Structure prediction request, 212 residues.
Amino acid sequence: MSDDPRTLQTRRRLVDATMQTIREQGIAKLSARTIATTGGVNQALVFYHFGTVDGLVAEACRVTTAERVDRYRDALASVTSFGALLDVADRVRADEREAGNVAVLAQVLAASHGNPALAAAAGEAIGLWSAAVRPALQRLLETSPVGELFDADVLTDLASSAFVGIELMEPTRTVDAAAVEDPLARLRPVAELLDGLGPIARRAVRSVLRGR
Prediction:
């Protein structure tokens, strides 16, 4: 890719226009024409810079997700408890909803069936989040009495899948949102229990888990 400022500016304009078009019109209405109209550029630029519309969508997913992940990297790096990790998860969910990125992810995932390019892009986007969360979980598990029971990689994959599933299921809720218990809130008691164990309790739990 050229480092020419004008080229970079055009590519960025197309990426932003793609995300905006999906948020406002849905991926079913996405085309070189709708992207160009949103971005105020010639639609031929879509093909010149990205080859296909799917190629542009894939790049948009990669670029915007990487930027969003970077916003929370410091917060994740400073996490020292399971409760603090849930706090970051709450922030991520609120921010991503407000930005409209949850809706974009849902639509890209739905469109990825039978579309290898979009499937790879969606997988890479989720992978970027997983890569940022994994070190935090590894640190917590190293000092947790249940650390020996869980593999950080497996737990990260489960957490990512659960988080995405919670967000994708949100539009299907038919009851008053205020009456629906926050799924993440259900994990709070577990996090508080693990974080609140003292040295003696930790040793006792480890002994039980090891069968000693």
Observations:
- The chain has ten helices and no strands.
